[in-house]
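input
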Amino acid sequence: MEHTKGGKIRLYESLYKQYSKLAFSKITDRPIAIAGLEQRLIRAFSTNGGFGIFEEYLRRSLLWQRAPNVQRMTRIDFGQKRVPSWSWMAYENEITFMDLPFNGVEWEKSEICSPWGSNTNADVWLSTRRSSNTHLEVIARDFRVPPGNQRTGELIFDGGRQPEGRTLKCVAIGRRKDVAGSSAQMHYVLLISQKSEGDVNLYERAGVGFMPKDWITFCGLNSMARVV
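output
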């Protein structure tokens, strides 16, 4: 705990990346086998958390992605246990984290709310117990990738490609501090896809990415949504 904030971030990223490479006799043990270490990190960081995410580092820790050697993430069938799609613990494969500059990102405070809300009790911990509140409250924004202009941004889908037949939106997680206010300012985003046609405000994680500001719709109609 004497490390800098960046050192603490690199610590949990390293632990989770190593852990995600491990094999299990029962793949459904993925959230359970690391539970003791996760809970200790939560208490050491004096924060809330669960499912591999820390409220103190909410936006950064949500920007995990499939490792370069993984073509697609495979969702684990947990039966009655609810493991949210925004957690890497819900999938079988190896992960890494987006390479974000320390002190170089302005995090969006009003675009996303954690499952822990304003509760400051560090023992509120979800990975190994049932809870009805395992969703993220977000602003779901439309975006458009201009034809022939893909190289200025990158979309990394958990399933290897864009989900078919489902509405795709993004959640603005943070923005680079360089060229602030410019249409070329880079934004880091969580990609989400509509879970079902019956509920237009219910989404699942689809991946992560980064894109220029002018790809994202920041004005007009953007809906509040839940990512489960």
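quick obs: Helices lie at 5-19, 35-44, 58-62.
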